[in-house]
Structures are given as C-alpha cells and as structure tokens.
Amino acid sequence: MLELELFGQSLKLEHDSDGVQCLYWKDKLVSRVDVSGHTVSEIVHRFELQKNEQAVAISLNLQAQDSTVSYQLWVDQRQQSNGEFPLQKAENLAKSKEKKSWMGLAALAFKLLKSVKVVKVVLAGASVAGYAWLFSLEFALVLIGCLVAHEYGHIKAMQYFGIKTKGIYLIPFVGGLAVADDKINTRWQDVVISIMGPVFGLLMSLVCLLLYGLTDLELFAGAAVLSALLNLFNLLPILPLDGGHVLKSISFSMRSWVGLSVCMAGIALGAWVAYTFGLALLVFFLVVGSIEVVMEWRQRHFSHLVPLDNYGQVFSAVWYFVIAGGHIAIIYTFADSDNAILSLPMKILSS
User: Fold this and answer.
1) For 241, how many CA atoms within 13 A lie in the half-sphere containing its CB?
2) What is the extent of the structural domain holding 284?
3) What digits encode the pLDDT tens for the residues 90-108?
C-alpha cells in the first residue's frame, strides 16, 4: 500500500484479508489497526521508536478522499512528510457510502474559491470599506491591523508545528480567518493554534494603548478596546470559535462523554447569548459548531489526536483565563469614558 523512509529504514504499510492494517519498520510490526466492520474515513497508526537512547513518538495519519488516500507522517509532533496514493490500493479504509450533502458541496466550493488570491484582496478591501463606513478610514485601518494581528497569531502557531498554511482572509463585519492546509496531530496543537490568535490580539491591543498614551489620539484607544472585545468574543467557549476549540481539546482529553457534555453546554450557552443579544451570525456559528461536535463524537474511537495529559489540561485552562482576563482588563480601563465607542464594550459585558 505505502512505503516511506524513516530514520534511514523502510516504513511499510500493508493490509490483510481480515481488514487489519499492519505497519512495519525494518520488517518489525510496530502498529496494527483493525477496521473490519467499521466505516471510517480516517485511520491513525501511533507508536514509539528509540533514537539516541530517547523515545520518539511517531504517527502516520491516513485519510480517505474521493479517489485517493492522503497521508501525513509526524515525528515528535512535527510533520516529516506527506502525500497521497490511489484509494483502490487502500482496501482497509472503508469509504463512506453516504451521498454528499449540499453542505459538503458548499464546503468544496468555498475551498476552491479561497484558493484564488484575488479573493483576499477583495475581502480585505470590503472589510476596510465597511469599517470606514461605520467609523472612519483611519480607524478602519487600525482595526484591520488588530484583526490581522489576531489571525497572524494562528498562522505563526501553525508554522511552528510545521503545518502548511494558505494565508489570512478578512471577512467584512465578522473578523478574519487563518486557513491551514494540513491537519493537526495533537490536542495540544489545537490549544496553541487556537489561543495564539487572542494572544497576538492582546499584544496588539497593548500596542494601541501605548500609541494612545504617546499621541493621545482616541482612535488608538478605540481600536484597543474593540480589538479586545472581538478577541474576547472569540474566546467564548463555543465551537467553532477559538475558546470552543480550547474547551473541546481539554474536555475530550478527559473522556469522550465529558467532551460531548461540555461542548453541548457551550452550545447551549451560545444559544442563550444569541437570543439575549439578538446575534443572528452567532446562530450560524452554533450550527457549524454542533456539526463539529457530532463529528468529533462519531470519530472518537478512531481519533488521531493525541490527548492532553493532566498538566496540559490545567496549563491550557490557566492560559485561557489569563488571556481572557487581559482583554477584560483593557475593556475595563475605559469603562467610565465619555466616548461612546470606548465605553461600549464594557456596557456590553455588564449588560
């Protein structure tokens, strides 16, 4: 089926007539996965090897697509190689027989659309024009800078883990989107990539506050508090927002049923917020998040994501609350301001 090179030796993937995948390194069996009787589109082989008297974690991720199987080889949470091979050679990967829904076609259309570079320019221009219409051109440019900083935090985290990216897309009146070209391999990667957006957003807000202190221009203060509000919104424990991914990684690292219960509670919280503040766009996020939770639950027995240990769970939770507290502190700084823009975020939080 597949043969790769790992540490100068052959890494072979084979399958037998009983529907069992076997992975061999130097003709030694290092991993086997029994998928007989299951319909799955993704399989993970995970094992350890000794190199220089140290244990090295190895992961081979396989995902069935329309006519091919894509693979990713990870060594100590860093991608070593990737590629694809014909699906007919992978008889052990059970391809789903369900017809593609209109949502699948829409996702494919969006994937094709976002590959066109001109879309980035059009969306960026529309975002600047939209915010300039609401406020001013100067304020729009500063706010766009804050949004780009947030998404750049996601991009830098992806690049740190060796994950290919497709860039940043600005979405008018919504924010931005950092698009990855590879899948993550661990829950820790999901936490870091998700939370680094608000981290960079917090740093940008602090820069805006510094510029406000130096120039006394309220547009920098306004950009700081609105950026803090947008980042705080992203930290809501609702999928597919950044906070929802942190919550999902922590809860699903405990138990699958804990992850399902906690994520559904987050969706219920989101529904209450959407109803209370009349946020129609949040309803769309909730639908997407619900689908993501259901898919996570259905694939729980075949998940390729390495869970967080107890230390990772505690550290991720503390990190989350520290960053959220930083954004709240910036908003609270201007709670008593006479400027309607500067005091608006605090009024929303205290509502």
Assistant:
1) 24
2) 102-350
3) 444 444 434 445 556 566 5
